[in-house]
Specification:
The protein has 302 residues and is α/β, with parallel strands linked by helices. It has 12 helices and 10 strands. α4 links the parallel β6 and β7.
């Protein structure tokens, strides 16, 4: 496991982070505890959640685990505020998250979305206040594009407020739009990139097929919105190329897709979601196996 500096801070986070979206939504507390135990045991120190995950149940599960395991000091804790990014809502959300997480400070507090209806100065000033109050160590964003993040950085710098130290975008073998502008911006401005969905919410596992029924109970069945993102001919073409390469190398599609995401230049940490400990283990195996430069290039140009 590698540890990489988060933005311009002195905080170091693991190259694999634990995305906690499944807690309280797809898995029960006992399973979530086992997943967190395994993640921490193998060196994952970044746990990422959000108020929106299972309507707060994810945060509550993590908070109970902190209390039970006395492990808060071992984790770099990240959470997110969704909805209207007003000063009042950000403050209220932070207080609710702190209560559910059973902690007095969040290491990385992020806005979950860009809000065009609220002045950005109001949002950034509110985040700065959380840092000044000691309720957040660092702040960041999720799902911002390059222009939005650049504007947020200028707003913070011009006012002497806490700048965003991390952004959380979707990134995998098929969804790669961040390569054009966001990754170069983050490299120039020293912003941490914590990417999510390295398997495309399961799309890159090969379980979905062009013009076929979506298997009942899968992520794309539970959350049909994923189909709008991934069910495109050019993406299915990449999946078929990945399937063929995995067969040729006698490696799994999952391992290749994870290894590609974890080792991509400019990525600080890759969040993995899990419904059992085996899915955590497969991320460790993928990082350990890695990819040759030649194979990485080949996968990148499918």
């Amino acid at each position: 496991m590698e540890y990489r500096r988060l933005g311009q801070t002195n905080t170091e986070i693991s190259s694999i982070g634990l995305g906690c979206v499944t807690f309280g939504r797809e898995i029960d507390q006992q399973t979530a505890f086992a997943i967190m135990d395994r993640a921490l045991e193998h060196g994952i120190n970044l746990f990422d959640t959000a108020e929106a995950y299972a309507s707060g149940a994810s945060e509550d599960t993590i908070g109970q685990w902190f209390t039970d395991r006395q492990s808060r000091h071992k984790v770099v804790l990240a959470t997110k505020v969704a909805g209207a990014q007003t000063r009042a809502h950000i403050f209220a959300s932070a207080e609710d998250s702190l209560r559910r997480l059973r902690t007095d400070c969040i290491d990385l507090f992020k806005v979950h979305n860009w809000d065009p209806e609220v002045p950005l100065t109001e949002t950034i000033e509110a985040l700065n206040t959380l840092v000044e109050q000691g309720k957040a160590r660092h702040v960041g964003c999720s799902n911002y594009d390059a222009e939005q993040l650049a504007t947020a950085l200028v707003t913070a710098d011009d006012n002497g407020w806490a700048r965003m130290q991390a952004t959380e975008p979707n990134y995998n073998l098929v969804v790669r739009d961040i390569e054009e502008a966001l990754l170069p911006l983050c490299a120039k401005q020293q912003i941490g990139v914590i990417s999510y969905s390295p398997l495309g919410a399961g799309f890159l596992t090969g379980k979905y097929h062009r013009n076929a029924e979506v298997p009942t109970g899968t992520r794309f069945d539970v959350i049909p919105g994923h189909q709008d993102i991934y069910f495109k001919d050019k993406y299915f073409d990449i999946v078929e190329s990945l399937r063929a390469k995995a067969s040729e190398l006698d490696r799994s599609m999952i391992e290749l897709a994870l290894a590609w995401a974890i080792g991509q230049p400019g990525i600080t940490s890759v969040l993995i979601g899990a419904r059992d400990i085996e899915q955590v283990d497969q991320a460790f195996a993928a990082e350990a196996a890695g990819l040759s430069d030649e194979l990485r290039t080949e996968l990148s140009y499918f």
